[in-house]
Amino acid sequence: xxxxxxxxxxxxxxxxxxxxxxxxxxxxxxxxxxxxxxxxxxxxxxxxxxxxxxxxxxxxxxxxxxxxxxxxxxxxxxxxxxxxxxxxxxxxxxxxxxxxxxxxxxxxxxxxxxxxxxxxxxxxxxxxxxxxxxxxxxxxxxxxxxxxxxxxxxxxxxxxxxxxxxxxxxxxxxxxxxxxxxxxxxxxxxxxxxxxxxxxxxxxxxxxxxxxxxxxxxxxxxxxxxxxxxxxxxxxxxxxxxxxxxxxxxxxxxxxxxxxxxxxxxxxxxxxxxxxxxxxxxxxxxxxxxxxxxxxxxxxxxxxxxxxxxxxxxxxxxxxxxxxxxxxxxxxxxxxxxxxxxxxxxxxxxxxxxxxxxxxxxxxxxxxxxxxxxxxxxxxxxxxxxxxxxxxxxxxxxxxxxxxxxxxxxxxxxxxxxxxxxxxxxxxxxxxxxxxxxxxxxxxxxxxxxxxxxxxxxxxxxxxxxxxxxxxxxxxxxxxxxxxxxxxxxxxxxxxxxxxxxxxxxxxxx
Length: 510
Hints:
Blueprint: H1 6-11, H2 13-16, H3 34-37, H4 68-78, H5 84-93, H6 96-101, E1 102-109, E2 123-131, E3 139-140, H7 141-149, H8 164-181, E4 187-188, E5 207-210, E6 218-220, H9 225-242, H10 246-250, H11 253-265, E7 284-287, E8 326-327, H12 328-346, H13 351-374, E9 376-379, E10 383-386, E11 389-390, E12 396-397, H14 421-430, E13 438-439, E14 446-447, E15 456-457, H15 459-467, H16 475-485, E16 497-499, E17 502-507
Antiparallel strand pairs: 1-2, 3-4, 4-6, 5-7, 8-11, 9-10, 11-12, 13-14, 15-16, 16-17
């Protein structure tokens, strides 16, 4: 019964972590805050299975982005998922982004000038969509891309502003705007067209970032290579599913890709110049903090590196600082989707696009060569495996982290085949006690990471394990899905992390 729905179950976690603040419509009965509503089982319809999981969807009038195709999909899968608890978990988690996190959709003002006037001529036809992240009223590039990519199976061409296609376009267009504002930052404020109040980031006064950023536009600024890779992935997946070139030709997408290339080129440099001077860096950051993962060494430069062809990433997708700046999973993802996005660029008929396309293809090949030369380490038990981070001097960090991209997700992104020898060796390493962040115990076994510390497994990593499994029997995938189902602590939602020895010790209930 499970085989037909594993894919959707596997991606549902990317849609369920992030939603908190939603504007209440004018109703006789106000919409509750989802973080409060979803903490309780009281007065809710319970599933008929062993766990009796509550229905955690908001009332219909409180859902932020109604989608008939989503509701049809949920109804169809009700008949295919035999386990009532498993269906309830899917029913709660898969629609969660559309139900709670699409805080605003609309159209861009002319010249990005700000809120339009009452006249419709003040707006363009450029879709925008602001997707909030978790318990913070801001939009992360990586998170918003992953949240929307959960609905890739539902994406079909459509010009309707209420369609899934319009939501994809809206996120692509708003991310494009954000990247042009500051390509090294990862989280942004609501667009002025939305009239949503700006969020407050108290870390702003504690961090010293160069280049500096405008906090009326940017919420936080950690240089994470995967943020730009996520924009390229979202662009590629939208085009591959719809064949629609309009967002890429009409709305300055070409210029955004050029900004990306210039930004990452400045982060490919070695620490030292040929004559021993300190080379300039495109981005530096220091923070006043009691957490080592929230700041960098060497006055914001990070630990020294040699040129490898790869791109330095000051932070990981977990928002934790790298140890060695050549973060292999992020370079894999960037190379993969830079190559994919070049297909879009090749279809745009201009000399500018032709030149950028050549830069994209060349850089993708150089990153791949750098990974092949510097990113594969011989492990005494597993043989050749991918390192998590390297510095070009020969130092390396052997681990994997739950957050995407990870080494485990290299086959999921298509950087390598699921049958690739080095990948299979790496997968065995990552899912073993030889990985320093493998959380194992009687309750839950999964990859975790330093963001929340040892002993905490992340269901996200379990879902990636399902989606990269080469087990022809399906037993590995079934075991992982059931492990997630058995660790919701009765809430029917997927937690951010779970302590491997106690089902009641978890972070973020949804």
